[in-house]
Amino acid sequence: MIEKNNALKHPLSGVGGKQEYTITVYTENQIGLLNRIAIIFSRRKINIESLNTSPSEVDSVHRFTIVINETEDVVRKLCRQIEKQVEVLKAYYNTNEEIIWQELALYKVPTDIIAEEVKVERLLREHGAKAVVIRKDYTVFEVAGQREETDGLIKVLAPYGLIEFVRSARVAIIKKSDGFHKKLNEFEYKEPGEDASENEFLNQNESVFSM
Amino acid sequence: MQTLEKIKETTKEQSPKAPLAGGGGAISISGSVAVLEALIAENVTTIFGYPGGAIMPIYDALYDYADKLNHILVRHEQGGIHAGQGYARTSGDVGVVFATSGPGATNLVTGLADAMIDSTPLVCITGQVFAHLLGTDAFQETDVINITTPVTKWNYQVTDATEIPAVLAKAFYIAKSGRPGPVLIDITKNAQLQIFDYEGYTKCNHIRSYRPSPIVRKEYVEAAAKLINEAERPFVIFGQGVILGKAEKEFKAFIEKAGIPSAWTIMGMSAIPTDHPLAVGMLGMHGNYGPNLLTNECDVLIAVGMRFDDRVTGRLDKYARQAKVIHLDIDPAEIDKNVKTTVPVWGDCKETLPMLTALVEQKVYPRWLQKFANCRDKEQEKVIKEELDPTTDILTMGEVIKLVNELTNGDAIIVTDVGQHQMVACRYAKYNQTKSNVTSGGLGTMGFALPAAIGAKFGDPKRIVVAVIGDGGFQMTLQELGTIMQFNVDVKILILNNEFLGMVRQWQELFHEKRYSFTDITSPDFVQVAKAYRIEGKSVKERKDLKGALTEMLNHKGSYLLEVMVGKENNVFPMVPQGKGVAEVVLSKEEV
After folding, report:
1. Domains of chain B with bracketed CATH
2. Do strands A99-110 and A164-167 pair parallel, antiparallel, or not at all (unpaired)?
3. Among B51, B63, B211, B240, which has the highest number of CB atoms less than 10 A from its own CB?
4. Are residues A190 and B205, on separate chains, in Cβ contact within 8 Å?
């Protein structure tokens, strides 16, 4: 019979704890690429917490921002698989400390309640909410911020009849990044410079060569 | 419909001053003609395919290209793609496959998955419904691009004929460069029919977002050489990367200078002659005893163009923990994927191996090699002797392979299916030259061998092709006998019939208390089946007839089917049982 105590370590399950990682992927703008990237996660039964696609600082280059909760080992392997896709230029992963990130949330609340309750107005101001649309029947507020901030306002508004709530995917800027302009130039050449084919082992020389 | 040449001639006659393709100007041709012109420009000579509604314009154009492109009509699209794989594996070129939309395309999926995991270069062209019908559930419409995304290196849907030349150039470049793989191009019917201004075909050699092989870093090669030079018990394990990189010579030079014993994965087999003095055998679940056992005794493990498949490593936390690992691979994603590397040598091994050879010291390791020899002796005594020279009347698969070796002098291409016969053939086959072993390694696709053997023959027509197939796998794709008949493909079909789905039965015997759940398989009279396809054949049950029958098969002009009735409940050993480490390799069922 099949051994029960034979809990094999999945090759993807590395050491170290899970935490939030933000993966930034620079790509060509190609139909079907979203699927190619998404299935890299779903094949390994890894949930994507947030996914955003947008233009990047470079004309014609697209930028994906993907948030997952995993160990660094898994994230590194995922990035290599992503980078392997023909239309992907480069994939980076970062912890929350290494990025500036924001999400945008919209809240629809009945206008009459806000008008009547002075407290609500104060709360909205405290949370940095901006009115986007004010109509007779409802008002839409927006808050840009991190998860706790946008979540915080839901709790606040709930007792006053929050009609609708929606939050965007995360967008993130990598603190250390110099952008992609220079890199792209390298990719245009047949023989790229070392920068285009970064070798992470080289950057961690000592830790790798444990001879 | 006409060929480009004829179109050019007519254009010349009608308006002698009209500029022609190649002469700097454009010429009006259909998307279908552009597809075929692309194939010719890529030096394609053979196509395996099956027509259907949505690919009819391409087939119509093909009618005028019959003298330039040899189209082999298969009997099922799966047969077509496996033939394409066999072709790619023996020729070293890209295999080309045509199929229609819907079911034609979905029938390619198994072959695409097989080619993906075994890094086989393919370009598959599928027809698709008219662009305006996409998403309407049109007749024979399937979302082929999304179905095939996980099993292709790249895929693309063409809806406008003007894209065809550039897309096909890209397809061939991607399929064969870097770590090869299958590419699928889905072309809507309107694009095939569309007449457009053809500007000629330009081969692709650069895509900005695609790095086929990483830059070689000298410091890593130096670090690797240092490790090797300091090693006392170095061990080389190599995979198909050596063959795909066309680096057989470079590899041989490396191991010969460094004097390192070398074992192959099933996919790396035949990259060096099997009787090379440093060849110590095959790795893997049913590989040789020494290579498995001694993986856990070496001090430096040098992996060349292989990907540490779980069938090779066994239990990972018991795999080569004592060794420093050097991994040469063209695919950066393979580094550290399964086994933590001490020194990664990224790059094409055709380039990195000579750099390494230059830096390693000329050495021999007689005591270390002797360990392999001792293991070999033990395996010989406990397994090989009885398999190759059985003491009972029951025929073994091993003795059949041994005779094939003798009769072909190790010059044949051996194509195997999947299961016990595959393991036995790969364990005992002798090879003198590269690209001789064609098998479904990663995916383990039963039904692979017969169609792959057809492709293998077209890929290297001068060599003898022997398809070794089990009774189960043969019944999965035996319709391809029709292809063999129609195109007179000289394939020797060797069925090793044990009247069981043998490998599953072996596991049931060893791990499921002999509960033979649906592994008892009944077969038709294979010789009669072959006869129905006008293929000569014979079945043998007794040892005294075996050599004569094999000789007859090999000497027969044209295809031939030989069925050998082998022991029903023979097992393949050695074995690294699932969930066990490589050093826990066993030589008999008593040890399991």
Report:
1. 4-198 (3.40.50.970), 218-371 (3.40.50.1220), 395-569 (3.40.50.970)
2. antiparallel
3. B240
4. yes
- Please give the DSSP secondary-structure letter assigned to residue B397: H
- Give A87's contacts (C-beta < 8 A, 6+ positions apart): A27, A28, A30, A33, A36, B209, B210
Residue B235 contacts A where some CB pair is shorter than 8 Å: no
The CA distance from A87 to A73, in Å, is 24
Q: How is domain A100-167 classified at the CATH fold level?
A: Alpha-Beta Plaits (3.30.70)
| B336 to chain A: closest CA residue | A77
Chain A residue with CA closest to B205: the answer is A190
Whether B300 and B326 have beta carbons less than 8 Å apart is answered as yes
Give A125-168 pLDDT, tens digit per residue.
Answer: 888 899 999 999 999 999 999 999 999 999 888 888 899 999 99
Pick the closest to residue A23 from A43, A37, A39, A12 (CA basis): A37
Spans of all domains in chain A: 100-167
Give the separation between CA B587 and CA B592, rounded to whole angstroms.
Answer: 9
Residue A81 distance to chain B (closest CA, Å): 6
> Cβ of B511 under 8 Å from any chain A Cβ?
yes
Say which of A2, A27, A36 has its CB closest to residue B149. A36
pTM (two decimals): 0.94
> Mutate which of B160, B208, B514 to disrupt the A interface (most A C-beta within 10 Å)?
B208
d(CA B52, CA B140): 10
- Amino acid identity of residue B131, one-letter, is A
